[in-house]
Please model this.
Amino acid sequence: MSLVRHGDMAYFQFERGAIDKQRLDSVLTILSLVLENPVGRMRWENAKPNFSSKYVEYLEALSPQPDSDDF
Model:
């Protein structure tokens, strides 16, 4: 969950203009890999309500939820 929190802070900085999109995406790359893991995805699904809707949407667009057949 620390990666998710780190990504949230990066997204906050991006929204405020402190970092650019390229920097944000580089921070979130490792997180998108974690979300491809079934355990990581399950933890994210449980944690999503604790984050801003814009961050959730952005992260979901980077790492779309796999089909349930993939598990």
Remarks:
- The radius of gyration is 12 Å.
- The longest helix spans residues 21-35.
- The chain has four helices and no strands.
